[in-house]
Amino acid sequence: MVLARVFFTARIHTSLTRAMSTAAAAAAPTPKSFRLALVQLGHTAADKTANLAHARELVLKAVAGGEGKRPDVVVLPECFNSPYGVKYFDKYAEPVPEPGASTEELEKSESIKVLSGLAKEAGVYLIGGSIPEREEGTGKLYNTATVYDAEGNMLAKHRKVHLFDIDVPGKITFKESDSLSAGTKLTVFDTKFGRIGLGICYDVRFPELAMIAARNGAMAMIYPSAFNTTTGPLHWELLQRARAVDNQIYVSMCSPARNMEAEYHAWGHSLVVDPMGTVIASTDEKESIIYADIDVDVLKSARTGIPVTTQRRFDVYPDVSA
């Protein structure tokens, strides 16, 4: 009798969970096809102002040179305004306001001011990579990504949830938590093309972020990133294809270009994967810009032909998006 009651209670909870998840997905904007550009930025050095100027140059180049078709969304890589390393986060950190902040608040931060102005100048949605953030009041440091609409308004802010703490003997040891604090929220944002999920680099190793975003109506998951030359060859493409196939969404990671003179050697190889796990755009380790069409028909075809989005058994296992 007790077991039956527990099972019945679980079934009720599962039904409510599924209804809540369905409602959240239904509230998302209707997906529309759009063109995505990834800026694999190179030549990042000690001069933040120069780094920002170079980022502006390449974003405008991406908008002007979209292979005959103007991009709608442009992405910059992780820590695009500074060298990447634990010892640099404090030195380069800036305040980052919350989405919806006034122009006056946006202009308190050198990098945020540039990103907001650049989105408006280019007339695109801009996923502004990530920058080191210093939280006002606490002084805590975060690895933070921001998103802007074509008017320069901040739409979203994501603090890296999973910090990059690894130790591969004889190859690489890195511990972001020596300097950074971890974010505590997941991030999706709405555009006129649909809902998009946002993560940063190491976040991609944790499938829950993409699962939750997809089940709440996201058509794509985008990660400003900076894998290295140890983890990149192992898992860079594999993880993106896994997240795409598991959730039948587009997945993309935008890396810095590789600089062998820097202390941290980025993998590069920015790419875009479609909902069937096919790599539809990629590059090598050098500074470059790549483009991909995020096609709603491909999204629909994947979900119709292999309908895992409607076949999940939340009566057997829990829905992580609840």
Topology:
Blueprint: H1 2-26, E1 34-40, H2 48-64, E2 73-75, H3 86-92, H4 103-106, H5 110-122, E3 125-134, E4 141-148, E5 154-159, E6 165-168, E7 172-175, E8 187-191, E9 194-198, H6 208-215, E10 218-224, H7 231-247, E11 250-254, E12 271-273, E13 279-282, E14 288-294, H8 296-305, H9 308-311
Give the % helix.
Answer: 25-40%
Secondary structure: number of strands: 14
Overall average pLDDT: 93
Order of helices and strands: HEHEHHHEEEEEEEHEHEEEEHH
| Overall SS class | alpha/beta
What sort of overall outline do the alpha carbons produce when their principal axes are compared? globular
Q: State the separation between the terminal residues, measured CA to CA.
A: 27 Å
What radius of gyration results from the CA coordinates?
20 Å
Count of helical stretches = 9
| Low-pLDDT segments, ≥5 res | 1-17
Structure description:
The chain has 322 residues and is α/β, with parallel strands linked by helices. A six-stranded mixed beta sheet has the order 5-4-3-2-1-14. It has a six-stranded mixed beta sheet with strand order 8-9-10-11-12-13, covered by helices on one side. A two-stranded antiparallel sheet has the order 6-7. Helix 2 packs parallel to helix 5 (110-122). It contains nine helices and 14 strands. A hairpin with a 5-residue loop joins strand 4 (141-148) and strand 5 (154-159).
